[in-house]
Amino acid sequence: MNEESLLARREEILELLDIYEKALSEKQARTLSSYFRYDLSLGEIAEEEDISRSAVYDALSKGMAKLEKLEQDIGALAYRKNLKSKAEAALKGEDRLSKLEELAKEISDGI
């Protein structure tokens, strides 16, 4: 993976973590947060949690898989991105008012 795709992946995991963190185990949430939000290394997390680096890696892997499964099943991040895209398009278009009204209706009906 190149640097841009790694950064995009990290941003996606952070967004998923913001949405679904409460659905993770306490250990998974803490580990993912330490790694992605606070940029701690596996070794630093292992020392902080008093566990092995492989246990940290396992918690990260399982936590990310659970976040991806939740997104696949629920789709909250995709919905958020879709609304953002529509809002940006509505602000640029000719018929802004009607597009924004459509968007407002979709938001109120979808939530």
How are helices and strands ordered from N to C?
HHHHHH
Strand content: under 5%
Number of alpha- plus pi-helical segments: 6
What spatial form do the alpha-carbon principal axes imply? elongated
Strand tally, please? Answer: 0
Please state the structural category.
mainly alpha
Question: CATH superfamily assignment of the largest domain?
Answer: Winged helix-like DNA-binding domain superfamily/Winged helix DNA-binding domain
Radius of gyration: 18 Å
CATH topology of the largest domain: Arc Repressor Mutant, subunit A
- Residue-averaged pLDDT: 90
Number of domains: 2
Helix content: over 70%
Per CATH, which architecture of the largest domain? Answer: Orthogonal Bundle
Topology summary:
Elements: H1 3-20, H2 26-37, H3 42-49, H4 53-74, H5 76-92, H6 96-110
Model description:
This protein has 111 residues and is mainly alpha-helical. It has two domains: 74 residues, Orthogonal Bundle (Arc Repressor Mutant, subunit A); 37 residues. The protein is built from six helices and no strands. α1 packs antiparallel against α2 and α3 packs across α4. The longest helix has 22 residues. The protein is elongated. It starts with a helix and ends with a helix. The mean pLDDT is 90.
